[in-house]
Design goal:
Distance between the termini: 78 Å
CATH class: Mainly Alpha
Number of domains: 1
Helix content: 55-70%
Largest sheet: 2 strands, antiparallel
Radius of gyration: 21 Å
Oligomer: single chain
Amino acid sequence: MSQNKKFKLVSSKRTRYLLPNILTLGGVCLGISSIKFSIDGNFNLAVTLILFAAILDALDGRIARLIKGTSDFGKELDSLTDFVSFGIAPVLILYFWELNNYGKLGWTISLIYSVCCVLRLARFNLTKVDNQQEWKNNFFEGIPSPAGGLLILMPLIYELSDLSLNINVTRITPYLTCFIALLLVSKIPTLSLKKISISPKTTIFLLLAIGIIFISLLIYTFETLLAFGIFYLSSIPVSIFIFKNQQKKFYQKISDEDHEDIL
């Protein structure tokens, strides 16, 4: 009798590719669901789902690299998910909350942001770093789409928080959206921290910091998001300074090597 073959959804050698892609698909489901809740007027839950989508986006790539489950399919799927969850969903949340009050101008701003996001993702997929310039892997060109999706929601996040600073943030919503759209397609270097090595001695402090952040997000969700948004925007000049400094060291090293070859 022939031995019964076990049914397998995928080859056992390729199961490691499933988990990152499942997380990615979870992110797109959260993004689409956030649109639904914004239509219903539940902006609290809509913003929370965008936050969860950003967390999943941060995890899927790192898990894929950790378990060696990266693939071209996963890369394309991740970009499509990012466009839905951070290029369409956040700006539609803003539109149903405030931008619709500006009529055609509000819809135009929404379209501009989405177009800038898809252009940023297309450029990211085509970007290749020279082996001699691996230090560039620690920087994004422009701000990443998950950061952009959360940053344009800052006026709404402020409204949902318990802060009362007597500031009418609704007025800055269209200007902030256009500004973040420009940052998406800009060539301003921003920190990615993908290749940052962590000393074993500092691991415990890193875990403590992550724990404090999660506790803050659980208890003071919107206040914490607002603080992170302000911190991220203020860190961009620091990123530019670090990038320029490393670029200067790189070209100085190349110049020294060429000088030695001539001698």
